[in-house]
């Protein structure tokens, strides 16, 4: 015997991986169970000093085995919980398959599989049984019987669905043998009768588990059958859809049979129908019998079946064949009603004498009053059966088994059992024999199929029995003590493979009333970190912590307040926590909160770790003028969406059930998805892949069960509606039979209220308003009304009983703003109507001006459509139809007070002035208005991405508050039936704010309408306004400067950060002139100030001796001033650099001029000043005039810009040369890739330049053909990630390189062959070519990411949400860095030591 040449070659090819990656000493038991190794060989390998040496010896043994043994070895690897070991098993097995198919080998003809079956097709591969049965449990004939009638019934149904597809449900009471019967039937059909070939079956144990655990199980199943990226899925609907799509796309795999065992939750049935062929076992019968072929389990064994089962345990049958003996046995069977679980336990008793049998009969037929109540579904005392079996164990083993009652009725890892029994130090091999013995006595089911983490399951009846006669509190205390001993009190060091420990530890500690342990765990952020990663959500952790809070509160232990703070902290910052890669300790060091004990504890844990942690050493967040110190509390934050185009959301009404949110993920991308999120748990409830990726609107019903979305793609544009409970698309009906073909409604609104269990929709298209009702999976028209002219909006009002719409009273053109078609003949009117829902008759109608204009404090109708403000939104009406909110373009939003008797708003100056109440002017341009359900609060989102909330009292705006958001805002809305405000921002964070209560910083509005916010004025008496700020490391000390206006004065505030960055020394320098910008550079002890005078003269000033507080020492010196060309309207400093080698300052300026047709055009000017020799000044003005230009790259020696179809490179002035243009390259078209290699000698103009156009959709081969292997691969990968980038600029500096897009945003950074591709970079380190670490700020997550330069490996993520970071700068040693914005906010980070 020995391996074939093919298999030997495979081992040789993968020898290094086999030896290095497989933990051989951990899988010896599994190799023995599969009969690959003998007992002596297991002992021999166990003595090896490490896994690697054991692997070396194992391979020598394996080479002497058969090919079938090699395949069994592959299966052992595939069943590992370690991903790379699983992958290795798949690789080895696939390699064997490939070689077998290529050379026609029949591998392992003499395999044990063939020997045990004996009827295998001689031409079949020896892969067949193991591959097709996979993890299907084995129930050997020595322990189990075949119930022929039950088996035949299941087999007949299985044969039918093998031909035509379908689903089978085998249901019955616990202990009735459903699982055994199904597994026997499936094995028989596949192995002996050649059904379900060649793909076989997949068996999955479900049990009494949570939704998240089902997601995990289905994800693992998806990976096994070949679904890509399934491990990242976190919702049942999404994993269901992914597997269903995969099976549909791979039609041959639809022939696989899926077995789902022991389903407790009936809601799970709907998520298992992705399979074309499946069989399910459950104690419950399903309600929807049209989906499943239902087979009731034969709950009781027949006498013959029971006798067969009992025979399995007899040592000497001849002693039991007497008539008297048989009578007693049959009486025993009758006493336990032939329940398989009871018969199996009795068999394990190994009864010998007649008295033994009589004792059993007597014992199981007795029920006291307590037992009678507990076992009302059973005619006998099944608990007594368990007691009899237990009494046969030694006292110590009895105690061990009784202790298992502490566990829940789920898979229990052997690690947890070993911890409970205190046998971990001896090794779990001591535990396994005991579990096998209990398995033989049918007291538990021991599952060794999971090679690295075997588990066992106790029947729920047995757990219930064990918990009756035990001190429950002490049981839980024993388990906690066992866990503690195993990990030596270091809770986070317990093996993460033991999922039970991390899921239920806190619950067991509460039931143990172990206050000390609870408080230790509540301060162990490392333990929490592992739990968060395993759960992939904060929900379970917060739920457990809330149980702790409730427990401690009942005991009046005040520390519960601390834990409540931690729960709220996690909920507030959930969107900033990347759970899959979270480092909770790091997050607690850098997130925005002010809870001392949490920060102190995080620092304690960080200080003892071997890898680097970073803390905030000093932070200052500038507040806006007149801002109250009190802030609106952020309650929760969630993440929904993945890119900038994910900006549409809608919410259900929590009055009808769980709050659900619909949105998009990767909108405009090929993998665009519609997602429905459960707000409380953050889990994806459902996921839909739309036909096209351009989603411009989403909708959800008030109960969250009906969702819709609108896509717009070239000539395919329509609404799609789905029922996420039935997973069916709903269709609009032309009549009772025919579907409506045109579903491209201009407007679709779901009614916010459910009327008598009916859900209504309103649509408008082609001059018709229609009201629809959802019935089943169809949407029927119940009424319609034709309307002239354009309808601009439809809104449901007055609890969904009315519809408000408004329209223009003139014909519109086809432009974006829908202006009057005939400007010389049109009515300046818009009509607002309120209609009854059922009859669609008009209850009220009024006319308002379509265009108005502001003249002083008056608002007048106007027909000047170019200067006037166009009515764009009518978004609010209160319950009495007394007040509307009218929005005219973005510039004017107002309350319109209605008189119930006036149906037309006349245009007389006084009438309009008395009914139109403008919003405060400090809001600027208004983008969106939203009103809460009780109409007392109104939220306004401005075009400046700010959010204000107004109180509305007696139809008047009374007061307001402003929300402090850390990012630009897409959308804001109130949760229905509440005053909870949701704000959805550009980082895909959905934040909930508390906007109720008088304790908030409400600002009262003046009655005279004079509400200009003085913050927006340039100068405000007695208030410091930071105009500009900058920071640098001078002599390795952090120094900051702030340009401050206060009244009529302009000062420069200098901040000098001391050691530990606290306290800060600062002083102010009074400037004699007003300046616009200020600059400071590393190792330059001067500040550079920039201003433009009223005469349009550019002045650059140096403030020397910056760090001296003696005003006599400080000197102001004008470095340079110049007059821009006369046609220059505006000068902006684009970039500034300081070159330390020759003490040279460089400033690049963009000068704006007015070109033809009033179009803006731009010059480029570069000024260099040698600070040692002030006479050496170089002024360079590019004679070209550009329609636009952008800086792509700049360092101390070179400047690269791009404009309208050109790229230009400049060499900055130095000792040898003045500033000059060294490369000009013009191109045609939109798409270019450009590579610029910087010279080693920076003083030369020997810059290598290459530019090649490309087109969207280039494949890898196209890129390599034009750019070669290395650059082609790089450009190809970048285009795959950033599909919409038109221009790529590769800057190469020695071994380092960076790639920018057309606007100077970083797309990739790397060194040699190692690189990282970026998609969402908001700010990058000014230290571009740093030697050790490189940092960026990701705008999508708001996190600061730290990379190790050599490998461009992400090694730390700093969650940060105090403010939007604009700049990042390291100190020389890279032991600290500063993040800051332009408004004066800054944060200093330093390494934790």
In short:
This protein is 26% helix and 31% strand.
Number of distinct helices: 34
Topology, number of strands: 69
Sheet with the most strands? 8 strands, mixed
Q: Numbering strands along the chain, what is their spatial order in the largest sheet? A: 15-16-17-18-22-21-20-19
Helix content: 25-40%
Which oligomeric state applies?
A: single chain
Description of the molecule:
- The protein has 1393 residues and is of the alpha+beta class.
- It is globular.
- The model is unreliable at 104-127, 315-320, 900-911 and 1012-1020 (pLDDT under 50).
- It is 26% helix and 31% strand.
- It has an eight-stranded mixed sheet, with no helix packed on it.
- It starts with a helix and ends with a strand.
Q: Main attributes?
A:
single chain, 1393 residues, alpha+beta, eight-stranded mixed beta sheet, six-stranded antiparallel beta sheet, 34 helices, 69 strands, 26% helix
Task: Describe how the helices and strands are arranged.
Layout (H helix, E strand, L loop, with lengths): L4 H9 L1 H7 L6 H6 L5 H8 L4 H12 L4 H12 L4 H21 L8 H6 L10 H6 L14 H17 L1 E6 L6 H15 L8 E7 L3 H15 L10 H14 L7 E7 L13 E6 L9 E5 L6 H9 L11 H13 L4 H8 L6 H11 L4 H6 L7 H10 L3 H9 L8 E2 H8 L9 H10 L4 E3 L7 E3 L2 H7 L5 H16 L11 H13 L3 H7 L3 H11 L3 H16 L5 H13 L11 H7 L5 H12 L6 E7 L13 E6 L10 E2 L8 E6 L7 E6 L5 E5 L6 E6 L5 E8 L2 E8 L4 E5 L14 E4 L9 E6 L2 E8 L2 E9 L4 E7 L4 E7 L21 E7 L5 E7 L2 E5 L2 E4 L7 E9 L5 E6 L3 E6 L11 H7 E3 L7 E6 L5 E6 L4 E7 L2 E7 L6 E6 L5 E6 L3 E6 L8 E2 L20 E10 L2 E10 L2 E9 L6 E8 L5 E4 L5 E7 L5 E7 L10 E8 ...
Parallel strand pairs: 1-4, 1-5, 2-3, 3-4, 18-22, 57-59
Antiparallel strand pairs: 6-8, 7-8, 9-69, 10-39, 11-12, 12-13, 13-14, 15-16, 16-17, 17-18, 19-20, 20-21, 21-22, 23-24, 24-25, 25-26, 27-28, 27-29, 29-30, 30-31, 31-32, 33-34, 34-35, 35-36, 36-40, 37-38, 38-39, 41-42, 42-43, 43-44, 45-46, 46-47, 47-48, 49-50, 50-51, 51-52, 53-54, 54-55, 55-56, 57-58, ...
Helix pairs in contact: 1-7, 2-5, 6-7, 10-11, 12-13, 14-16, 15-17, 21-24, 24-25, 25-28, 28-29, 30-31, 33-34
């Amino acid at each position: 015997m020995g391996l074939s040449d093919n298999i030997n070659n495979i081992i040789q090819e993968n020898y290094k991986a086999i030896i290095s990656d497989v933990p051989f000493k951990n899988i010896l038991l599994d190799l023995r169970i599969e009969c690959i190794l003998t007992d002596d060989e297991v002992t021999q390998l166990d003595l090896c000093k490490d896994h690697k040496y054991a692997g070396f010896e194992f391979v020598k043994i394996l080479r002497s085995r058969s090919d079938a043994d090699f395949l069994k070895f592959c299966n052992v690897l595939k069943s590992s919980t370690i991903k790379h070991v699983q992958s290795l098993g798949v690789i080895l097995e696939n390699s064997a398959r490939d070689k077998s198919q290529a050379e026609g080998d029949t591998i392992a003809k003499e395999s044990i599989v063939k020997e045990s079956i004996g009827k295998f097709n001689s031409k079949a591969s020896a892969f067949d049984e193991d591959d097709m049965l996979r993890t299907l449990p084995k129930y050997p004939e020595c322990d189990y019987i075949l119930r022929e009638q039950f088996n035949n019934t299941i087999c007949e149904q299985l044969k039918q669905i093998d031909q035509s597809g379908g689903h089978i449900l085998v249901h019955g009471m616990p202990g009735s043998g459903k699982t055994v019967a199904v597994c026997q039937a499936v094995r028989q059909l596949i192995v002996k009768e050649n059904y379900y070939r060649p793909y076989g079956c997949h068996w999955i144990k479900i049990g009494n588990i949570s939704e998240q655990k089902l997601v995990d199980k289905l994800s693992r199943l998806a990976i096994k059958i070949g679904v890509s990226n399934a491990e990242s899925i976190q919702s049942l609907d999404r994993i269901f859809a992914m597997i269903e799509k995969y099976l549909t796309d791979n039609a041959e795999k639809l022939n696989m049979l899926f077995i789902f065992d022991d389903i407790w939750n009936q809601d799970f049935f709907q998520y298992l129908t992705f399979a074309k062929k499946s069989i399910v076992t459950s104690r419950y019968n399903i309600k929807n019998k049209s989906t499943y072929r239902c087979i009731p389990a034969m709950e009781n064994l027949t006498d013959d079946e029971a006798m067969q089962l009992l025979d399995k345990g007899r040592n000497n049958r001849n002693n039991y064949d007497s008539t008297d003996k048989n009578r007693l046995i049959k009486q025993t069977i009758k006493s336990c009603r032939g329940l398989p679980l009871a018969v199996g336990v009795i068999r394990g008793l190994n009864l010998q004498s007649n008295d033994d049998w009589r004792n059993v009969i007597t014992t199981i037929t007795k029920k006291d009053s307590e037992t009678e109540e507990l076992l009302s579904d059973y005619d006998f005392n099944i608990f007594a059966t368990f007691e009899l079996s237990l009494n046969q164990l030694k006292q110590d083993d009895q105690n061990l088994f009784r202790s298992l009652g502490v566990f829940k009725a789920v898979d229990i890892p052997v690690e947890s059992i070993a911890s409970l029994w205190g046998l971990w130090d001896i090794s779990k091999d001591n535990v396994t024999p005991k579990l096998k013995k209990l398995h033989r006595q049918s007291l538990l089911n021991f599952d060794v199929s999971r090679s690295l983490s075997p588990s066992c399951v106790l029947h729920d009846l047995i757990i219930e029995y064990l918990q009756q006669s035990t001190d429950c509190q002490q049981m839980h205390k024993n388990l906690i003590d066992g866990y503690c001993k195993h990990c030596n009190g270091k809770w986070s060091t317990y093996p993460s493979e033991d999922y039970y420990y991390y899921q239920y530890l806190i619950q067991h500690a509460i039931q143990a009333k172990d206050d000390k342990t609870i408080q230790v765990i509540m301060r162990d952020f490392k333990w929490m970190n592992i739990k968060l990663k395993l759960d992939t959500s904060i929900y379970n952790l917060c739920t457990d912590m809330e149980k702790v809070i409730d427990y401690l509160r009942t005991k009046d232990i005040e520390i519960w307040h601390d834990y409540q703070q931690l729960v709220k902290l996690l909920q507030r910052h959930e969107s900033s926590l990347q759970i899959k890669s979270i480092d909770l300790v790091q997050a607690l060091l850098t997130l925005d909160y002010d809870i001392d004990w949490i920060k102190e504890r995080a620092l304690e844990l960080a200080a003892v770790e071997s890898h680097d942690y970073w803390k905030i050493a000093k932070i200052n967040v500038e507040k806006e003028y007149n801002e109250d110190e009190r802030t609106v509390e952020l309650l929760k934050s969630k993440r929904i969406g993945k890119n900038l185009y994910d900006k549409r959301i809608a919410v259900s009404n929590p009055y009808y059930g769980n709050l659900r949110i619909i949105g998009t993920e990767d909108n405009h991308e090929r993998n665009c998805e519609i997602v429905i999120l459960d707000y409380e748990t953050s889990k994806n409830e459902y996921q839909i892949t739309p036909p096209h990726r351009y989603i411009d609107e989403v909708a959800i019903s008030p109960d969250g069960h009906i969702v819709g979305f609108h896509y717009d793609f070239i000539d395919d544009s329509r609404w799609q509606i789905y029922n996420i409970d039935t997973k069916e698309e709903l269709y609009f009906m032309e009549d009772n039979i025919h579907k409506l073909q045109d579903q491209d409604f201009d407007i679709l609104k779901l009614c916010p209220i459910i009327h008598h269990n009916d859900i209504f929709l309103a649509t408008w298209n082609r001059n018709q308003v229609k009201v629809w009702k959802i019935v089943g999976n169809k949407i029927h028209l119940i009424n319609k009304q034709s309307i002239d002219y354009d309808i601009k909006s439809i809104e449901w009002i007055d609890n969904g009983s009315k519809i408000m719409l408004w329209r223009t009273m003139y014909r519109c053109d086809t432009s974006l703003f829908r202006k009057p078609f005939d400007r010389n003949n049109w009515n300046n009117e818009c009509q607002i109507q309120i209609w009854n829902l059922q009859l669609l008759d008009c209850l009220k109608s009024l006319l308002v001006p379509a265009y108005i204009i502001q003249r002083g404090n008056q608002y007048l109708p106007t027909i000047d459509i170019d200067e006037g403000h166009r009515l764009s939104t009518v978004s609010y009406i209160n319950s009495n139809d007394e007040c509307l909110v009218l929005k005219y373009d973005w510039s004017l939003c107002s309350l319109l007070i209605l008189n119930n008797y006036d149906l037309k708003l006349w245009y007389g100056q006084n009438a309009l002035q008395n009914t139109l109440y403008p919003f405060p002017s400090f809001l600027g341009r208004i983008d969106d208005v939203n009103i809460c359900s009780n109409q007392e609060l109104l939220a306004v989102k401005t075009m400046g991405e700010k959010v204000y909330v107004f109180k509305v009292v007696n139809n008047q705006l009374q007061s307001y508050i402003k929300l402090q958001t850390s990012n630009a805002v897409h959308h804001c809305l109130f949760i229905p039936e509440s005053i909870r405000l949701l704000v959805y921002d550009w980082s895909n964070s959905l934040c909930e704010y508390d906007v109720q209560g008088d304790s908030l910083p409400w600002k009262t509005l003046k009655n005279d309408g004079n509400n200009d916010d003085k913050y927006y004025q340039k100068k405000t008496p007695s208030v410091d306004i930071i105009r500009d700020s900058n920071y640098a490391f001078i002599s390795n000390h952090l120094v900051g400067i702030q340009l401050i206006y206060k009244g009529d004065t302009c000062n420069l505030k200098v901040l000098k950060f001391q050691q530990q960055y606290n306290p800060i020394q600062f002083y102010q320098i009074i400037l004699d002139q007003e300046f616009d910008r200020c600059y400071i550079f590393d190792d330059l002890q001067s500040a550079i100030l920039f201003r433009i005078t009223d005469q349009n003269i550019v002045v650059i000033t140096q403030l020397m001796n910056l760090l001296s507080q003696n005003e006599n020492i400080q000197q102001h010196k004008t470095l340079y001033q110049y007059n821009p060309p006369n046609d220059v309207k505006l000068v902006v400093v684009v970039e500034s650099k300081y070159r330390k080698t020759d003490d040279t300052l460089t400033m690049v300026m963009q000068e704006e001029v007015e070109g033809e047709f009033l179009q803006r055009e731009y010059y480029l000017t570069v000024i260099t000043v040698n600070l040692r020799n002030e006479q050496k000044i170089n002024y360079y003005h590019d004679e070209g005039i550009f329609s636009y230009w952008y800086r792509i790259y700049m360092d101390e020696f070179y400047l690269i810009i791009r404009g309208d179809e050109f790229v230009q490179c400049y060499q900055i002035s130095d000792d040898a040369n003045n500033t000059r243009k060294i490369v000009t390259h013009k191109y045609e078209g939109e798409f270019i890739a450009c590579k610029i290699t910087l010279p080693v000698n920076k003083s030369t103009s020997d810059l290598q330049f290459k530019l090649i156009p490309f087109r969207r959709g280039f494949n890898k081969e196209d890129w390599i053909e034009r750019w070669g292997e290395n650059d082609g691969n790089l450009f190809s990968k970048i285009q795959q990630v950033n599909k919409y980038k038109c221009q790529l600029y590769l800057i190469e500096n020695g071994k380092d390189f960076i790639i920018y897009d057309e606007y100077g945003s970083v797309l990739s950074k790397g060194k040699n062959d190692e690189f990282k591709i970026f998609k969402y970079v908001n700010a990058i380190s000014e230290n571009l070519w740093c030697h050790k670490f490189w940092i960026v700020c990701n705008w999508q997550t708001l996190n600061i990411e730290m990379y190790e330069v050599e490998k461009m490996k992400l090694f730390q993520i700093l969650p940060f949400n105090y403010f939007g970071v604009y700049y990042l700068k390291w100190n020389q040693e890279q032991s600290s860095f500063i993040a800051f914005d332009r408004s004066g906010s800054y944060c200093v980070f330093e390494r934790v030591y």
